[in-house]
Design goal:
The structure is a homodimer. The first copy, chain A, is α/β, with parallel strands linked by helices. Chain A contains 13 helices and 14 strands. The radius of gyration of chain A is 21 Å and the shape is globular. Chains A and B meet through helix 1, helix 3, helix 4, helix 9 and strand 13 of A and helix 1, helix 3, helix 4, helix 9 and strand 13 of B.
Chain lengths: ~375, ~375
Amino acid sequence: MKSLLMIPGPTPCPDRVLRALSQPMINHRGPEYMALQRELIAGLKRVFRTEHDVLIFPASGTGGLEAAVANTLSPGDPVLAVTVGAFGERFAEIAEAFGADVRRLAFDWGQAADPGRVGEALAERPARSLLLTHNETSTGILNDLPALARVGREHGALVLVDSISGMIAADLQADAWDLDVVVAGSQKAWMIPPGLTFVSIRPRAWEAHQQARMARFYFDFTRMKRSMERDQTPYTPALPQLFGLRESLAMLQEEGLEASFRRHARLAGAVRRGAAALGLPLFADPAHASPALTAVGAPAGIDLRELRRRLREQHGVVIAGGQGAYQDRLFRIGHLGYVAESDIVATLAALERSLIGMGWGAEPGAAVAAAERALAEAEADA
Amino acid sequence: MKSLLMIPGPTPCPDRVLRALSQPMINHRGPEYMALQRELIAGLKRVFRTEHDVLIFPASGTGGLEAAVANTLSPGDPVLAVTVGAFGERFAEIAEAFGADVRRLAFDWGQAADPGRVGEALAERPARSLLLTHNETSTGILNDLPALARVGREHGALVLVDSISGMIAADLQADAWDLDVVVAGSQKAWMIPPGLTFVSIRPRAWEAHQQARMARFYFDFTRMKRSMERDQTPYTPALPQLFGLRESLAMLQEEGLEASFRRHARLAGAVRRGAAALGLPLFADPAHASPALTAVGAPAGIDLRELRRRLREQHGVVIAGGQGAYQDRLFRIGHLGYVAESDIVATLAALERSLIGMGWGAEPGAAVAAAERALAEAEADA
């Protein structure tokens, strides 16, 4: 069956990217590779909005989070981990695994982090680093990153940011917002397959790196930077994803980052309005709803596993379940990356058909109609 | 220009593999992925010749080496690193970076490791782990892995093996040879692009893992195994390379591992005979010459950068330089993975034409003729 992949990563890849993956291998020490890497780093800097370093590691985003921690901290360093869901928790676990003295400031799932409370926590116990999640993939929350980062800087903490599912769907400005380290993952709004993580590093993070004694080799910033300065890598790079990145950077340039943010916000709004029209409970605080994905709670009496099965098997629409304790209490619709209005409409139509088939009282077309109105309003506002 | 990639990795990919890379993304938590991963793990176990665990990490082979070390050792543990080139040295550096007390037993570049001397070194100072290189990519040496591993076991050391450029080109039997951890890399004889490392783990390594206190998260064996037992992964897998792996495992099954070893030995022999017919100095001890690549020393008066440039720009044949101190004193021809006689003949023809063009006294056709004779003899022997 024709399938529509509407999960918060891996996201659908444009044909142009998929075709690029199939290019024959090249010598990663030769002139063709060197020119490619130079071009990619320049493109990444434009997307991160930084004039400082961006490194590429052949790994998933989790590897980038490990790199952020292990390169800037020493065992025993006090860290404040601000968590609003499963990925904030993962960031904290990584810091613990490498020996940091981690204190968590956890907000309820579905809520955003409160900068005021972060400031209080940092005043109570100073931290060497503040771990922040830009967009929490498990709950569909977009944190107020500039405000949180400002609080961290005011208290002298190094600001390490997980923006794996945030960047490109939402605005992020590494230099203007003074973000010391930012981590991204290829399989999200970048529109390329999993296998690469991108890490931006500003001067204060490099200073911290000089003193940082956590164990590292594969993810070592110095080794990677030294190689990249010579247009090389310290070990073999993941060529297919790099070929894909060239295409996706070109597409991002064609669309423009601001246009991408607006598109994501518009599609996210349509999904929320469509879900609400079906009487479904939106999980995330609407004031901080993510432009990248929408988490929806279980409607009374509806089995979410069965709902997802129907969507997949009867309508070819693949959505995600919840994570951790919310595994069967939430479903999540991804709308980041290479996603258009047509995908949103098709997903909402499949959702309402599946729900009606399961006995949920809703009018056929209600969700789609609400989404169409939301899209029209967003156009009128633009 | 049509290009022939004859470096020791990344290696050329079969069309069937390249096409598989372009498959649209799928849900890595869904039934299709779960079935794929089960199939891949079963196939990997056949190639590693093990009934125990094989894990897949989305990373380069260097990441697999880090995993081998960080999962089985604690800071301060005594380690003996047997080095015969740049990659043995890298393995030792990783162990040092994670706090092991590393002693090196270094053999001259171009020589194989002597099991007797390894035994003496282990008798002199017992080691918790013995780090071994199966096939040294920087020099073209194939170590006597079963003999070296036996010595390690006799002295009670855990045997950690880098077989990144060895497996499939050369025989390796994880269970029969009692190899505690073996690390492989996708971009070598596996015929798929870089981006995956495979790690086999036998029961003694799992026991050591229980006590191992080195820092790890991304490469943690327990986290990966627990996920893989449920046909899942702890973070997003590198899907294109996994799609490619399915094809390459099928091709390996069609050819047969024994046939693959014979093919690699035959092609390697032809390269050595061809190079010798040109009067070029073979770098590696002929008794331990690698079936995966051949390193050749600089002929008197020939600039190797210029030689490689001519091969690439005039004949479309891409070969590698040397590594470390041998960067411009060696060139290396890769003949592992998806390589056939036709590639060897074309490479040798380009080599002799380039050398003759640079004033080296050789007869046109001499290298190709010698290679043809070697291939014919190998066929007659078979």
